[in-house]
Amino acid sequence: MTGEARTGTLHDPRLVARLVEGAQRGDALAMDELLGILAPYVGRICGPVALQDGADAAQEALIAVFSRIRQLKEPAALFGWVRAIAVREALKLAGQRRRQPTVPMEWEEPPVSGDLQLASDIADALHRLAPEHRAVLMLRHVEGLSEQEVSALLEIPVGTVRSRLFRARRSFRSAWG
């Protein structure tokens, strides 16, 4: 998957820039169209990190995005800015639930029937990881960010990213097997 497909920038950058500028001016139609672009992207980020609270995290992230949209200086930076907000909200909600019992993860799109067991196994393995580990795995392997980019996004040292990735991969393998 290319970086463009992951970030949602397959949308025309000029259109996105116009929508951001409209949203910054308070244009409800621009906000609505921008919401249609951002909601699936934010959901893909929040779901694997916050698990059963993924929808709530996505909602909180989108509220934060639109309440702070005027702070975005460069429309071209939209997806990176939104990603940072989404990860923070997902980690916040996942941390709040950390010690509470979990329920099975809801999938945004139901897996193909042949993949139901695989999807269930992946969800089970993810549930066993700490939220911080799910976040680095998702950012590194789903979003395709480098360790340096993950470090900057989560505001932690690169060495911490590497150790969390190591532990997350080891824990995932252990839970998988």
TrEMBL record:
Molecular function GO labels: DNA binding; sigma factor activity
Keyword Transcription regulation tagged: yes
Superkingdom of the organism of origin: Bacteria
Alphabetical UniProt keywords: DNA-binding, Sigma factor, Transcription, Transcription regulation
GO biological process: DNA-templated transcription initiation
Tagged with keyword DNA-binding: yes
Protein name per UniProt: Sigma-24 (FecI-like protein)
